Amino acid sequence: MDKFFSGNALKEMIDNKIHELNPLIKHGVSIEELKERISKKEEEKLFFNFKKKIENNINNNKFSIIAEMKQKSPSAGNIIYGKDYNPVEIAKIYNNNKATCLSVLTEQDYFNGDMIHIREIKEEGIKIPILSKDFFVHKWQLYYAKSEGADAILIILAGIEETLANELYEEALKLNLSVIVEVHTIEEAKYALRFKDALMGINNRNLKTLKTDINTTYEINNALRNYSGTMVCESGIKTKEQLIEINFKTKIKTFLIGESLLKNLHKNSIFSVL
Length: 274
Description:
Elements: H1 8-27, H2 31-43, H3 50-59, E1 64-69, E2 72-73, E3 77-78, H4 87-96, E4 101-105, H5 116-123, E5 130-133, H6 139-147, E6 152-156, H7 162-174, E7 178-183, H8 186-192, E8 199-203, H9 215-223, E9 231-234, H10 240-250, E10 254-257, H11 259-262
Parallel strand pairs: 1-4, 1-10, 4-5, 5-6, 6-7, 7-8, 8-9, 9-10
Antiparallel strand pairs: 2-3
Helix pairs in contact: 2-6
């Protein structure tokens, strides 16, 4: 099996990312220069351990919320319009509500994201681990994300070949980046078991239809009952009650939540589980 492609929507976005990256890799900032930027940020102590913070919560029987920010998405359309989308201000709200980590969309064409958003959040002095949420298809991106302040990256198994997934994973670990390996099927989840130092993200969104189904989490969790690593339930969580129900049925304690938080930033009961 060479690929886990799940459908046209994902393939279109991956192909677009590859096309967008080619000139940046050939003519943009070199990896050597990005390494220098990373070293400077390390001296300034701007990096935080994403995976360790979540695992510490699990060890202390606490929930973790990876609070996501994005201006729009292919499934939801515009979530926050125009100048009302301020990643730094959203990060402050999430931090004040004791979010465990942040997920910042950095993909531009489909989500209106930008790597600069991570840099701005870090420069504001918000001390919280940040996931760069993007389509990672080349190791150059890992260095670029880290140079802008990212603490973690995402590898979507449905979007890339196995050999590339392995290469990105190994390179990320060398950079001390935490990794979420995202899966959408039992088959992908079983393959993801080889990434022993990664978090396993279960995305409830079907990448072919862009619809969500929480049963995806239940099915994968049931198939991997002996899995001792950390699972992250992603997409489709709308209420505190739903989160608690998922935890009751699966024992999963880590949740990546975006749209439902963004639509009710100031009085969201989901944060009360923390």
